[in-house]
Amino acid sequence: MEYVNPLTGFRVDGRRPNEMRQLKGEVGVVARADGSALFEMGNTRVIAAVYGPREVQNKGQQVNSKDALVRCEYRMADFSTGDRRRKPKGDRRSTEISLVIRQTMEASILTHLMPRSQIDIFVQVLQADGGTRAACINAATLALADAGIPMRDIVTSCSAGYLCSTPLLDLNYIEDSAGGPDVTVGFLTKMDKVTLLQMDAKLPMDTFETVMDLAIEGCKAIANYIREVLLENTRRLECQRG
Amino acid sequence: MVGLSEGEKHFIRGGIAQDLRTDGRRRLQFRAISVETGVIPQANGSARVRLGATEVIATVKAELGKPSILHPDKGKVSIFVDCSPTAAPMFEGRGSEEFSAELCVALQRCLLGGKSGAGAAIDLSSLIVVDGKVCWDLYIDGLVVSSDGNLLDALAAAIKVALSDTGIPKVNVSLSATTDEEPEVNVSDEEFLQFDTSSVPVIVTLTKVGKHYIVDATSEEESQMSSAVSVSVNRHGQIRGLTKRGGAGLDPSVIFDMISVAKHVSRQFISVLDSETLAAEAAE
Questions:
Q1: Which residues of chain A neighbour B88 with C-beta distances below 8 Å?
Q2: Where are the domains of chain B?
Q3: Which residue of A has its CA nearest to B145?
Q4: Domain B8-283 in CATH: superfamily?
Q5: B97 — contact with chain A (CB < 8 Å)?
Q6: Predominant location of this chain (chain B) (predicted)?
Q7: Where exactly are the structural domains of chain A?
Q8: Are B147 and B87 in contact (CB under 8 A)?
Q9: Could you say which of A31, A124, A127 has the minimum Cβ distance to residue B84?
Q10: What is the ipTM of this complex?
Q11: CB B185 within 8 A of CB B173
């Protein structure tokens, strides 16, 4: 199967190699959560909800009394994949992604401002079409901003791959399943720091640098979009306040 | 969620006794309902229903499978419900399993009929492709995204809308000469069959608070309930299932009153839901 048309340079879904899927972000989708967001990257749809900062429920989990405890749970709906799959809660992949999201968000949240408290991030995947953990991180960032949690910077995440001798930005499910390398980057755009980096399959170092740079460019584009969404939301709140 | 104080509890019960609830509704009045179809493009049918601050997503997925030995001329339908932790932190981890199972069994009782398949909301014979060999397996999934009371009614409404949004691919069968071989099936990409959802019921839950009962209880009102009766009614006024929840006992005559009130209230609810469904499908 050809993932990049050699004549036209288009991908299977009609994108160019460095083109992102269509983004859509919406805040305030869960009424009773302190902060919530819906984020779509193409056909990947994710809902994130934030509860907190609130009192620590389980004292045993509190590492120290100087920082807030950040907890995260990642959940996939049974219907979210093309083939229906019933997974037990807390399977290995969900646990790993929960930990990844928690570490990525911890790097951004100013935990020292909220000692002895707990921030819960819940991420629910409604539809998966590749780039799921990147979409989860973007949704969690929007939800945290909606909840008013103080953060150093906006964390965004994007994946990139390498197929048919071409670096590709923002893989979809078909490209992800092709067996090529998949690089996922979490990025603090203003601080210019990487908070998440994952790669599977084989990749030479010089190609890896190219692919990683492409993913970072994707993160910056997503950060611009998220900033627009938050500005629009702030303007709407300002109008409501009168 | 912070607990209610004694004054708040008294206020809620007093308001219900005087037919004026905290959000201004009367006892037998639903919150505004909004419907959206086609929210999960990968599924055969999907719907999102918002009932006040309660929001649920229902999807229908169809797969080819083998019919049950007990009923070789009928397809199979399964219902699953999951409560997302985004709805409430108490659903985190395995916290939602008990509640999800309760909702799931209540929905199965109302929609799937008995063991014989009689009284099922969907004509199971229409799901047969080859008798005894190939049939459609329908998987109905409900997901609670935001929870503010009355989840059972919202889930049943979402499943009804999702079923009317469902398109099942048409299957062409070429039978081989030998009867015991697996038939060759060709799933069409163009032609789709749709369900007749006129018999699919909605669920109306009547929650008893003090000496009165209300429909479409919010979370605060549900916390004050002594018991609740959920009645599954279809468009023709037939009752397809009953479930009682809550610890307190109910007088039998009160139950009969509740059933007749549920039948009456469901008429308007079904017409509102149908018009919202048509509007959503037109907007899709």
A1: 32
A2: 8-283
A3: A30
A4: GHMP Kinase, N-terminal domain (3.30.230.70)
A5: yes
A6: cytoplasm
A7: 23-241
A8: yes
A9: A124
A10: 0.82
A11: yes
